[in-house]
Records
---
Amino acid sequence: MHHFAKPAEPAEGGLRGELAELIASFRERLAVVEIDAAGIRVFEVRADEVGATRHTRRASAKWSTLTVSGEEVVDAVHRIARDLISADEADPVLIARIADGDEQQAALRALRRWRPSARLVEAPGAKVGELLGELAAEAPLRQTYDLIVARERAQDGRLELVGRRLFGAGARPGDATTVAVTCTDAGGMLLAVSAWSGPLQPSELVSAHHAPLPPGRHVLRAVLERPGLVRFPEIPGLQPDTRTWEEVVTTLPARLQPAPGPGHLVCAIETAGTREEFEARCHWAGYVIDVLAERRPDPQQLQVSVVGYGTHVYGTRRADRSRPAFAVWSASTGQARAALESLRPTTPTYPHAAQLEDMLAEVSTRLLRQPANTRTALLTIGARPPHPPRSGLDRVPACPQRYDWLALLREMEQRHDLRSAVICDHPPAAPTSPWHRLGSTAVFRVDAVNAEELAFRLGLVSEPAKALSLPFVSQSEDSGGRN
Amino acid sequence: MAETDSAPGDPERGREPDIAMWGASGSGKTAFLAALSIALNKSRDAGWRLIGENPVSRTELAKLRNTLLQARTFPAPTEALTYYSWMIIGPPETRRRWWWPWTALPAKAPKIKLDFLDLRGDLYAESESNIDKQALITSLVKSRGLLYMFDPDREARVGDAFKHLDAALHEVAGRMLVGDEYEDGKLPHYIAVCITKYDDPRVLRIAMEEGFTERDPGDELRIPQVPPDRVRDFFRLLCQESYDHNTETILDLIEAFFHKDRIRYFVTSSVGLFIDEELGRFDPDDFLNVIDNAGGGLTIRGAIRPMNVMEPVIWLGSMLRPGAIRNRPWNG
């Protein structure tokens, strides 16, 4: 047996350099053959769909095993090479000879016979399998990696998916970059990284993680850990998203809901009833306000008013001139929440109607001072319908002020594009019930309210079910994406 | 008349009843009685009073008045047969002998005896053997004036007036007309047919929209009234609006059993229409005087202004005591 004169480390250093060069440059596959004192091992190195280098040990045999059937070493190794090593000259072959001797010489002859261009590197003491793993992690990126974002198509505003460059081909592990995107969903967004094998050929998803970020603009820092692994180290709480890409795509809206403009929610709450009834109404008013506070945190963009109203008093000598109690007008969500707490339940003085029409009259007057471009929504929560302007066959007495609730509602709808929804203690029985008209946008029962849906129908937030879960970039921001 | 503490209610006791009351359950009989005293007090033709003939009747009268005026609600429906011995006493009239007109005789107050049987409204449909029913029929037979209460609101919803009227009329006719006393084959009673609950929106709207109402130029409250000569037609129209087809024949049934000239129709309301005191007149958009209250009952909303409650009683009295009651504004 021959012994190498070179020390082990430089020999492995030579192998490392040769292998690193080949791993960075091979196209389809790279074959690495390790010949040591005990036998022969054949490794195959390939790049997966996202450009990460993977190596597998295709064969491993001791010299004694190869000759046990009487076959010569040279013939056995040639058979292995023929079966496992590409004959294509474009696929490089590297032979690492760890030890030397008759078997090793025979094997080398057999390999050279199959692939005369195979490089030979003397590498005494090297462990090829371990070295391949290290070098694969250190290899430069073979493909470009993009963050998948959505943008609006210039011609029609429909959403399309494009890539924002994170790392180009050749980027090395440890490289970092930043990308500016906008999160449009209160639930956060999906950070999906895709690999591109060519300028027009997307290949595969590298990773998909849910980032629990609040709505708004974010500058994301991405680090290439190694080919096939991109990290966003500054985002806490990242969780792998296990959905298929098809599932992700089906949840995406065709268009981005336009960001709601200035909004004003008027919460009108009937105070007449038991404490339980009153508290259930206030609960939902508070819940809707909370949803708005979460979805629309900018206090300049959303105002909330809270008004309580009770029942008219009949049977007194003078007509009831009591007015609804405005707990707060055009305030922030926080102020509205506090004002809600100031309302108190009142004893019903009439069973079949409440001074809802007085509330409408007061709201109508106050809305006259409001800017014209404000999305105005009225949410009425109660049990009793309004008094009619004229008493009718249902024996409900007319409003003492003769307010006409329907005329007031129509006027506000026309003047302010008002949207009106109701939450009723009980479902309105008759199809002619005023609740249906007052709830032209939505009618919910107090025990079955979808606050998110309600806020959406009132036009105060964008569509909840079709929120954009991917990062969004505007046309002006989108410089260099591709699709 | 001697006062007694016995239960008000023996129809055989004392003088025969002048007037008997009649109507389906919930037709407003009890409220009518309660309103009668108030109506007499409110009458501009001062001097008419309703008094109880015995302590129990007086107590009941006070209770009925209080229910309406103080509690501002309606008396509970009659649960059992109850007799009230009441009397309407008018202002004394000076009398002179025709043959010696220079000296006036001591003034004498006209009196109408009201032995009202206030009873459960559906008693008329009870079986023959029912003691209360027998008492009722006896009262109807012995009285000579009848107050028949017709509730258009109830008729539109339930429609049982014909059943009650038909059963009672045939009972009374069977008792009175089999002999030779009434050869013309008609019952001898005067009957005041009272359309109750004129304040009900359904009734008032029909009256106004069908053109039955007029305004009295002298009425500063401008309350729409159905003129006496149109009440009969109004009654016929209301019968046609009934839930029960048979109700359409009620007017014919009444006119078949009674002399036409002894029938008079009245449009009545125990509490009247609501008048907003600030407005000071009838408002067609806001006239409900009876509204539901938060306790599940009814509340009288405004001032109680009985309409045509005393008029049918006084009319019956004038027909039964023509010598005693004459030439009054309400007479005729």
Note: The first strand of chain A starts at residue 29 and ends at 35.
---
Amino acid sequence: MSPDRQALAVAGTVALLLGALGGGALYLIDESEPDPLPPYEPTANVPSDVDYVGTLNATEYRSDPAVANGTRASLGFQSRVEFYSGPPFLRSLVLSPPANANLDPTNASHVTYFGRSDSPYGARLVAANWTAEAAVDALQERRDTTFTRDDRDGYTVYRSESGPAVAVLDDGTRGGPVPRPGPHLLAIGNASAVADAVTVAADRRDPEAEADTLDGELRRRYSDTDEGYVRFAYRFRPETVPDYAFVGSAVRTVEWVGSSYTRNRTGAAGTPGGTVPTAAATTPTDDGAPDAAESPDIRVRIRITVEDADSADDVRNVLEAGRSFYLFQSSNARLKAELRETSFDVMGRTVVADYESSPGGLRVLVRGLFQNQPEAESLAPPGREEVKRRGHGGPGAGGPVTASGSAVRDPV
Amino acid sequence: MSLRTILGKELRWSRHRVVALLFVLVLLPAAFAGASVFFQHVLPKDAPVAVVAGEDVSEEEYDVVAASFRLFSKPVEYESEAAAMRDLERESVYAVVSVPPDLDDPDVERVNMTVTIDGDVTPYREPSGALVSIVARTMNRQLDTRVVVQREVRGDERKLSSYLLPTFLMIIVLTFAFAYLPYNLAREEAVLDRLRVETSLDTVIAGKLAFFTGLLAVPLLVFHGVGVALGYDVNLLAPGAVLGYGLTFLACGAIATAVTFASGFGTTGRLFNVLVLFAFLGFSGLVYPVGFFSPLRRDIIRRVPTHYAMLTVRGSTLRDIPAAEFATWLGGVALFALAMLVPLKLSMLAYERGT
């Protein structure tokens, strides 16, 4: 065989081998992997014209009891600020179902919150292995009301006389908004908000229609938040800001607030600043259980968008002043280390506040940061006893946090 | 001649003056409208304030005091009170705050904190009272220790009329440079060409600048006389003040002359000089403390040489500070004046080539 023919034979053999390998790989891939499922998009069925939107990855939230407790406490303090207008996280069926409810909250994977500020309009989209009937039963228990079954745009809707409604946006068969067989997608909340969610879902299914889904600035602010197990954004209402001396005008320039909670596994090994964990690290959580030593740190990032860069500087100064006072007053070494790591950066007209803490310490950190803000003119200074009662290693002073809290607006 | 004919004539003539009209009707209004962004606050929210942290003051003690002031001022850390007081006199800062060393001592129930201001900086006196009140309230609400914040006024509390005397003279100097000098040059344009036959244009312009600088002695004496007659404690004849005014006129006169030559002694040049005059009046910090209206304006003012001339004049006339104390600033203004001779020379060369 001539050298040319030899080379031709070798090239032909190699080409055949490669072809066989490629074909086999394609065959194997085709056999072993079905069409990849599109990820669940929690905000896809949120109607437009809402003031807040928030999502909770319930699976990740529940994966660590310490994380869940720390997050709940932190959200509680965050949402009790007088001028908070974001999602009412704390009393949904997923997080706090009625004791006698016939549904398992651990079967819920995602919750999406949407609604309008200062209005009963609001609902949750719950992706869970729940039946609509179980959710309706739980609501009946809680609200002492009865529901009637109805149909709207081809979706089953349960309405009550007192207001709440439940709609089944996905009945658990593949092809609905939840791209897996099994979980249902339920819209639970105010009848009007639920009806809007049904309309959006119907329009999304109809190739001829254009769904009037969440869009515009609020969607952009939500998208700007980090990928976290808790994410939310809301339109700020300046008229709710009390009369702060000098800084009130700066706070009233806030237009949008976004926030995210992420777990940072790398932060769990040591404390920020390398300090030795002290009392706060072993502080019992809400349910009395001590923090798990291996629990990841929780990173909270708040994005505050204001009118202009100058106002952003003012808002950052307000936040930094709160931290300085808290740092000064606290005698907790670990908390001090965490406070020193806290950052407030201005990016254009957005202030980005970043804090990270162990789940057990987070509530102490966030409570102090939110309390240690300049005092509103309209609030009376706290009495000495109240100051002592607030103790966080060192007592803090009053701030723009109401005693009653504003998180509980719609106990659906 | 009918009104319609006259209006038509005006329109036709306007075409010949389109550059000047564009300047007056477009550029000037745009500049003024744009300048509005530099005015954001009616209180000195961003005025620099010295926060003195002695050796026995912890970082957290400093931070909490600085944070209290940062909401309505720009705290600047100082290690020694003497340095802070020196800068207070020179208006580099407008108040001096001493951090009490026992602020975080749990055994101490009450601490005193002093905020010192200069009685000569009249526009800051009233706002500083509000500032002290707010800081005291903020700290007492946030801290366990009772903090008594006292405001101390250094020197006599000067009246606004007395404070403004050196400022008004500076406004006269700037107006003289940017309005009267170009007007005078334009009137003598024809004479300049004749003088160039006997001497150089450089000598003619140098002589004119020197003469007009000397003429400033007249308003200086008038102002000083009026000040004495009204019983103001202002020494406008202090060497630092004379140097400050003189160097400012030389620098601004050089700019105005350069613009005049560059525009061929035209109306556009004169209008442009008016625009530059407004810029110097607005961004030299002549009356209010820097940081009074916005941080942006503060940062610009701190880069304008005539601001330092004004501070030198105020320091010399109101506080009798020797000129040597302002040697660096006066040197800077002198360098600025020298630098402005470069565009002047270039514009004169261009003029000579064109005629």
Note: Chain A is about 35% helix and 20% strand.
---
Amino acid sequence: MKTFAILIAALCVSAPAWAVEPQEMLKDPALEVRARAISKELRCVQCQNETIDESGAQIARDMRILVRERLQAGENDDQIIAYMVSRYGDYVRLRPRFMNSTLALWIGPFVILLAGGFVVASRLRKGGKNPDPLTPEEQATIASLIEHGERTP
Amino acid sequence: MSGQDASQATPLVRRWPYLLPLVLILALGGVFTKRLVDVEQGLNPNVIPTVLLDTPLPSFDLAPLPGRGTSLKSDDLKGEVSLINVWGSWCIACLVEHPVLLDIAASGEVPIHGIAWRDEPDRSLAWLAERGDPYAKIGQDPRSKAAIAFGVVAAPETFLVDKQGIIRYKQTGPITAEDWRNKIKPLIEQLKK
């Protein structure tokens, strides 16, 4: 039980494993926080589905270092991201910008949701009407089924 | 009884929405098939199209390999058509490309400048000593500064730069003899005019 508690405690205090290596980090904690935030917006161009913050690829490492150098040179976050975009295209943004070519991506789900809602709403409205009453033949069939367990010929 | 009765009661026109899923699936199938055929025919889905075509080459000033000429500067490249090849001694695909680069250099059509990307100078030199050296100038890029400026993803990548220093073509991956014959050489002849 005690071992278990120690294990849990150890898990709680341990930091998650990052790709960022200690020697890459900036001494200024505020700048380092900004560097991490920018790195999470940028896609590793080699691995394609990781941020450069979490990627172990060499090119991602060099991009992280470049982000930090530019921060130290006094550039703001937008300038740094804009530089990367100017080199690699919008591809390098992990969060696609809202523009003509990404319109379907951004509003597509809402359009589909609306269309679905419309279908459901119109169905519900139609379903709210009372169905036609049973004809005398149908009532006779039901009565016969209840009474004899079979249809009358 | 109800199924049959209902179908008779509902006119055919009103049941077309039930065909929608089939139509959608067929359309999706078409899109996927097109993509598969493209990949089969040589499209590499991992290649990110470069945004640098028809833009000026980035400015850089890269130190030469020790004992091998002067530094590679972007300003020096203006005035003649040239190829810039991003390579490294660690790069397997560069081995495949190397004989083609040697042939291009021997043809004298165009100077090839090398960017020794993320490499130890000694290893770069040893690699060239062993396999032949097709490069006019070589600049070192140990921290990927130039590589990132060129939007490089993986070596080898090659850029064709015109007399004004504008990037006119980018090859991702090794240049094959066919690429040289069919794409790059004709383009160079056009740019030299």
Note: Chain A has a mean pLDDT of 86.
